[in-house]
Amino acid sequence: MNIFISNQKLNDLASKTGISEVGATTAEPLAYMLERLEIRISENRLTPFEEHNPSLRISPVALLDSCRSIITIAIPYSGPEAPVPQSEDLPRGQVARCARAVDYHLLVEFKAGQLVRALKQEYGASFNHRILTDRSPLLERELALRSGLGIIGENCTLINCRYGSYTALGTILLDMDVEPTGIGVETAGCKGCGKCLEACPTGALTAPFIINPQLCLSYLSQASGVYPRDLRAVAGNRLYGCDRCQEVCPHNEGVKPSPLPETAFSLFPAKPLLIPLLSITQREFDLTIGLTSAGWRGKTTLQRNAIIALGNSKSEAAVKPLARLLENDPRPVIRAQAAWALGRIGGQRARFTLGKSLRYDQNPAVKIEAEQALT
Ligand code: SF4
Ligand code: SF4
After folding, report:
1. Closest CA to 166 of 294, 261, 252
2. Closest residue (by CA) to atom 6 of ligand 2?
3. pLDDT string in tens for the chain (375-residue length)
4. Domains of the chain listed by start with CATH number
C-alpha cells in the first residue's frame, strides 16, 4: 500500500493504546546475523525451542511476503516486589519477573492488536499485517535494536532506556511504509562492566554477548525431563527462570515499574511456598500458573523444579511430601527428582524411602537416582 506513517503519527497512535516503547524499521533482512547464527548452530548454542533454519530467522518477508516495514514494541512487565509473608518458616521458590503476571505473549499480542486496530481506523483496513512474539522464528531483539528500542547488553538482553531489560518484545510486520526510528549500535550504552558475567551462577555467559543455553538456569527451568545432575545444586530455589544477570545490571537500577495494569496482578507469586506445588491439581495449575508465561511447559516441569528447589532447601518439612511422591507418583521424572532431593536432605525417613525405591521401583532411571542418593 502506498501509505507513509511518520514517527510522530506512530508514537501518537501507540500512546493512545498504552504503548510507550515503540519503534519502526524496514523489512530488510538481518543479513549480518546469518554468520552469527551459523556459528551458534556449529557450537550447539541453539535451544530446541528456537527455529534452526537461519534464513527464516533473518528474513521478515519469509513470514509476510508483502512486508515493507516492521513496527517493534517493548512491553514493560516489572512491578514493585510484593512483601513475602514472614509468618512461617517453610521453603519458598523464586519466580522470574516475566512469569508472575498474565502471560506476556498474550499481553504483547493484545497491545500489538490494539495498535493495528488504531492503524486500520486511521488508514483503512486494507493493509496486511502479522503480529509476532518471541515464539516466532524472527530475531525480534535484533529488530528492536535496529529500530532504536534499546541496546543489547553483554547479558544478551535488550536494554530499554526507561524500563531496563524487564520488557517483553513484540513485532508487527506490515505492508505499509513506516518511517524508521533509531539506528542501533550493538555495544553503545552497555556499560561493559562485566557484572552480569561475574554474577551468572553457572558461567552460562561464556563471553560478552555469548550465552550457552545448556548452562543457563532460565532455559533449564523450561526444558522438560530430568534436570542435569551437575547443575541441580546451583539451581538453588529457582522455580522458573533466572533474573540474576539482569538484577546486577546497572541499567536495571531504579527502573520505572510497568504502568500497565495487566502486569500488576500476580498469578504466580515472586516467592511461592514450594510444598503445596507438589500436590497442585491440574485445575488449580490451569487457573494460576497456567495463565502466566511459566505455564507453557506444563505442571510436571514446574513440579520437577519445585522438587529440585526443595532438595536444595534441605528442609525437614519436605521429606514427607517428597517420600510420598517417590512412593506413589506415576511419573518417572518426578520420582527420579524426588529421589535426588531426598538424598540431598538426608535423614532416616528419607533413607528408608530411598531404600524401598531402590528395591521395588520398576523404572531403571529412578533406581539409579535412588542408589546415587543413598551413596
Ligand atoms: S539467566 Fe541466570 S543462568 Fe542464564 S545467563 Fe543469566 S544469570 Fe546465567
Ligand atoms: S551488567 Fe554491565 S556488562 Fe552486563 S549488560 Fe549490564 S551494563 Fe552491560
Report:
1. 252
2. 249
3. 678 899 999 999 999 999 999 999 999 999 999 999 999 999 999 988 899 999 999 999 999 999 999 999 999 998 777 777 766 789 999 999 999 999 999 999 999 999 999 999 999 878 999 999 999 999 999 999 999 999 999 999 999 999 999 999 999 999 999 999 975 444 457 889 999 999 999 999 999 999 999 999 999 999 999 999 999 999 999 999 999 999 999 999 988 899 999 998 889 999 999 999 999 999 999 999 999 999 999 999 999 999 999 999 999 999 999 999 999 999 999 999 999 999 999 999 999 999 999 999 999 999 999 999 999
4. 4-81+101-178 (3.40.109), 316-375 (1.25.10)
Burial class (CB in 10 A: 0-12, 13-18, 19+), 244: buried
- Ligand 1: which residue has its CA nearest to atom 4? 216
Which residue's CA is minimally distant from atom 8 of ligand 2? 190
Cα–Cα distance between 241 and 133 in angstroms, integer?
18
Please tell me the distance between residue 213's alpha carbon and the centre of ligand 1 in angstroms: 9
Q: Which of 12, 65, 103, 134 is catalytic?
A: 134
Judge if the beta carbon of residue 192 lies within 6 A of ligand 2: yes
Q: How far apart are CA 190 and CA 201, in angstroms?
A: 21
Residue 186 in contact with ligand 2 by CB distance below 6 A? no
Pocket flag, ligand 1, residue 217 (CB < 6 Å):
yes
Any idea which residue has 512461617 for its cell?
88
